[in-house]
Automatic annotation (TrEMBL):
Protein name per UniProt: Acetyl-CoA hydrolase/transferase family protein
Nucleus as UniProt keyword: no
Alphabetical list of SUPFAM superfamilies matching this protein: NagB/RpiA/CoA transferase-like
Domain of life: Bacteria
Ranges of residues in domain Acetyl-CoA hydrolase/transferase C-terminal: 267-418
Classification via InterPro entries: AcetylCoA_hyd_C (IPR026888), AcetylCoA_hyd_C_sf (IPR038460), ActCoA_hydro (IPR046433), NagB/RpiA_transferase-like (IPR037171)
Keyword annotations: Hydrolase
GO molecular function (one): hydrolase activity
C-alpha cells in the first residue's frame, strides 16, 4: 500500500488525530520517531489525557516532568524509561518479550494510535521499519490511526519491510539523525567477568546478548573465538566489530546460515551504516528472535544475560532495584529456556558481585524484588570471582557454589543465612 504524500512536521496537528483516552504506541529505542514524539509532547496539552506505550527509551523526549496529562506504560524500565518509573509515571506490563506482538494481535493491549519511523525503500522497494522489528507492526494492524516519520537517515533493513497491506494514514518527512545508544563504559570488573564468560563459550556457538556494559565487555572478550553465530533480540556496535573481524560468521547455523538475526538495532551510526541494505543482517519479529521453537533448534545456543541480583538457589531479579522498576522481564526467560533446550546450549547470567561501590552484595539470601527467572531455569552464573554451575545441583550445593563467587566480604554472612535456611527447612 503506498504511503500518503508526506507533510512537514510543522503542519502536523495531532489534536485532529488523537482522541482523549487513546493509547499511543511509539517506536522504541533507536526506532523512536522523534519528530512525532516531540510533537506529541508539545501538543499534549491540547489533546487531553492519553496513555503512551513505550519500549526501551534512549532519548529524553518523555522526561519525568514533561506532559503531565500523559501516562506511560510499557514492557519495562529500560534506560530512560526507568526515570519515568522512578517518578511514578510508568505502569509496567510484566510479560515475556516473545508474547508482546500477541498482546496486540489478541486485544490484550490497546493500540489506538501508532507512531513509527520508516526508512525509504531503495530501488523502489517497500519502506522498512529499519531500526526495529518488534511488536509495532502488530499494534499498527489494530490501530485507528498510523502516523509515520519517513527518515532517509534511518537504515533500510531486510526483514523489517513494512508489511503488505499495512495502512499508514499520515506521513511526515523529517530526515533527522536517529536516536543512538552509545556504547556503555566497560571497567575492570566487567572485563574480569567477561574473561570468565569467554571461557564458557565454545567455538561455533550461537550467541544472544543484551544491553549494557556487561554484554559489551563479553563481546570484546570473544574476539579470539571462531565461527560464532548470532541470533538475538538486538544487535550492537560491538557485534559489528566481531562480524567484521570474522569472529561471527554464522557459517555453522543449521538455518539462517551466513546471516545474523536480530530484532532491534541498539547502537550508533557504525551499526546503522553496517545494517543498511545488508542481507547478511536479517531483522525478525519476537516470535522468531525469542521463539522457543527457533532457539531450541540452534546447537550450542548460548544466552548471555545479566541481573540486578540473584539468590543462593539461582532465582534472578532483573527488574527492580530499591522498589523502582529499572529493567524488564524482557527476553531473559525466553532466551534462558531456549538455551536450556538447545543441543549443547547454555544460559549464562553474568553480574558484578557487588553494588553501591561494594556496599551491597548482589548475591543475596532472598531477592528484594520479583523473580524474573525461576530457579528451575537456573544454569550458569558468573561474577568477577568465578563461575557457579547450578544445573542439576541440589539446593545446598547451589548455595555453596553461589557463595564461592560472591565477594569475600559477604561470604560469611551468606553462609550463615544458608545454614539458617536449611536448618529451618530440615535439610
Amino acid at each position: 500500500m503506498p504511503l500518503p504524500t508526506p507533510i512537514s512536521v510543522s503542519a502536523l496537528d495531532l489534536k485532529g488525530l488523537i482522541r482523549p483516552g487513546d493509547t499511543i504506541v511509539v517506536g522504541q529505542g533507536t526506532g523512536e520517531p522523534t519528530a512525532l514524539t516531540e510533537a506529541l509532547v508539545a501538543q499534549a496539552g491540547d489533546i487531553g489525557p492519553a496513555r503512551v506505550f513505550l519500549g526501551a527509551l534512549f532519548s529524553r523526549t518523555f522526561a519525568p516532568d514533561a506532559a503531565p496529562n500523559l501516562s506511560f506504560t510499557g514492557y519495562g524500565g529500560i534506560q530512560q524509561a526507568g526515570a519515568l518509573a522512578r517518578a511514578g509515571r510508568l505502569d509496567p506490563v510484566t510479560t515475556h518479550y516473545s508474547q508482546l506482538p500477541g498482546l496486540f494481535d489478541n486485544d490484550f493491549q490497546r493500540a489506538d494510535v501508532v507512531m513509527m519511523q520508516l526508512s525509504p525503500g531503495p530501488d523502489g522497494r517497500a519502506p522498512s521499519l529499519g531500526m526495529i522489528s518488534d511488536y509495532l507492526a502488530a499494534a499498527a494492524r489494530k490501530a485507528r490511526v498510523v502516523i509515520a516519520q519517513l527518515n532517509a537517515r534511518a537504515p533500510w533493513t531486510f526483514g523489517a519491510e513494512l508489511p503488505a497491506g499495512l495502512r499508514v494514514d499520515v506521513c511526515v518527512e523529517d530526515d533527522r539523525e536517529p536516536v543512538i545508544l552509545a556504547p556503555a563504559k566497560v571497567g575492570p570488573t566487567e572485563e574480569a567477568i567477561a574473561a570468565h564468560v569467554a571461557g564458557l563459550v565454545p567455538d561455533g556457538a550461537v550467541i544472544e546478548i543484551g544491553i549494557g556494559a556487561m554484554p559489551d565487555a563479553i563481546l570484546s572478550a570473544l574476539k579470539g573465538h571462531r565461527d560464532l553465530g548470532f541470533h538475538s533480540g538486538m544487535i550492537s556496535d560491538r557485534t559489528v566489530d566481531l562480524i567484521e573481524a570474522g569472529v561471527i560468521t554464522n557459517a555453522l547455523k543449521p538455518y539462517d546460515a551466513g546471516a545474523s538475526i536480530a530484532g532491534c538495532l541498539f547502537g550508533g551510526r557504525r551499526l546503522f551504516d553496517f545494517a543498511h541494505d545488508n542481507p547478511a543482517l536479517q531483522m525478525r519479529t519476537p516470535d522468531y528472535t525469542h521463539g522457543f521453537a527457533a532457539l531450541a533448534r540452534l546447537p550450542k545456543f548460548t544466552a548471555l544475560n545479566s541481573a540486578v541480583e540473584v539468590d543462593l538457589t539461582g532465582q534472578v531479579n532483573a527488574e527492580v532495584v530499591g522498589g523502582a522498576y529499572v529493567g524488564a522481564i524482557g527476553g531473559q526467560v525466553d532466551f534462558v529456556r531456549g538455551a536450556m533446550a538447545a543441543p549443547g546450549g547454555r544460559s549464562i547470567i553474568a553480574l558484578p558481585a557487588t553494588a553501591k561501590g561494594g556496599a551491597l552484595s548482589r548475591i543475596v539470601p532472598a531477592l528484594s524484588g520479583p523473580v524474573t527467572t525461576a530457579r528451575g531455569d537456573a544454569d550458569t552464573f558468573v561474577t568477577e570471582f568465578g563461575v557457579a554451575e547450578l544445573r542439576g545441583q541440589s539446593l545446598a550445593e547451589r548455595a555453596r557454589r553461589m557463595i564461592a563467587i560472591a565477594h569475600p566480604d559477604f561470604r560469611e554472612e551468606l553462609e550463615q543465612a544458608a545454614h539458617a535456611f536449611f536448618r529451618a527447612a530440615g535439610a
